Amino acid sequence: MPSTVTSPPLSSPAQTTAPAPKTTTCNPLPTPIISSLPHNLQVRAYHPTDAPSCAHHANNRKIWINMTDMYPYPYTIESAQSWMKHTLDTTLWIRDELSPENAPLIQPNYAIIRNGECIGSIGLKPRKDIKRRGCEVGFWIGEEFWGRGYMVVVLKAFVEWVWRTFPALVRLDAEVIGWNKQSGRVLEKAGFMLEGVSRRSVFKDGRVVDEEIWALFREGV
Ligand SMILES: CC(C)(COP(=O)(O)OP(=O)(O)OC[C@H]1O[C@@H](n2cnc3c(N)ncnc32)[C@H](O)[C@@H]1OP(=O)(O)O)[C@@H](O)C(=O)NCCC(=O)NCCS
Q1: Closest to 146 in 3D by CA, of 175, 181, 178, 172
Q2: Does the CB atom of residue 140 touch ligand 1 within 6 A?
Q3: Which H or E element spans position 14?
Q4: What is the pTM of this model?
Q5: Considering only CA atoms, which residue is closest to atom 12 of ligand 1?
Q6: Ligand 1 atom closest to Cα of 152?
Q7: pLDDT tens digits, one per residue of 126-164
Q8: Atom of ligand 1 at shortest distance to CA of 148?
Q9: What is the per-residue pLDDT across 178-218, written as a single tens digit (0 to 9) for each?
Q10: How far away, in angstroms, is 194 Cα from ligand 1 center?
Q11: CA distances, 153 to each of 40, 59, 145, 159, 166 (Å)
Q12: Going from the N-terminus, what domains does the chain have, and what CATH number goes with each?
């Protein structure tokens, strides 16, 4: 028996109007998870229109040199689009262990926004198995904004959001390549402590180097 295809009635908007624009261009901007910060800074989920500004600020060897090799260089608009797609992969989203099983999953990676422009990124990588009450935190910010205190402001606020949003988490840590003193300073100013050094554990840009482990704990745990 032939399948039946039902045509829309002639009055259907699909027949009388131009094709709808791609949803990516008309989606509203995501509601910030963190707003009201100094310097017009906000933290929110990525939006497709962030790709050009994200790529503009991310495409910097001085950032790449301090990141894992997952971070591309050169960092193109396609790299930004692929990163944003990755942030939408719900298999990487987090449901807090103390939340009900039907609680929504929460996205772990966000754009740092200033005056509507994506100038950086901040996010969490959940630890697994017996380390699952902890998360790694990672971040970068565009070079033209370095040294203005932006990252400390954002990191402090993000940490507060993490404690509020994931009640089971007790530990945040960051793995910092030994030569990256500015990142260590940012972490220190946000309350993290240097726990130790993992010696010769990193191979980056053709060099074997130490890695610093910085950690912060939920108060009272
Ligand atoms: C690390 C990074 C996010 C810092 O951003 P930022 O907006 O410049 O940070 P802030 O201005 O809030 O603070 C920087 C602090 O580091 C200090 N600093 C800068 N260079 C330094 C250095 N070579 N040695 C020690 N401290 C340094 C600054 O003096 C400032 O501290 P202060 O306020 O006490 O003076 C930025 O440099 C970056 O994106 N780097 C590349 C990516 C990266 O390293 N990510 C972290 C991976 S773990």
Answers
A1: 181
A2: yes
A3: helix 13-16
A4: 0.89
A5: 149
A6: 12
A7: 999 999 999 999 999 999 999 999 999 999 999 999 999
A8: 11
A9: 999 999 999 999 999 999 999 999 999 999 999 999 999 99
A10: 15
A11: 11, 23, 13, 10, 20
A12: 31-174 (3.40.630.30)
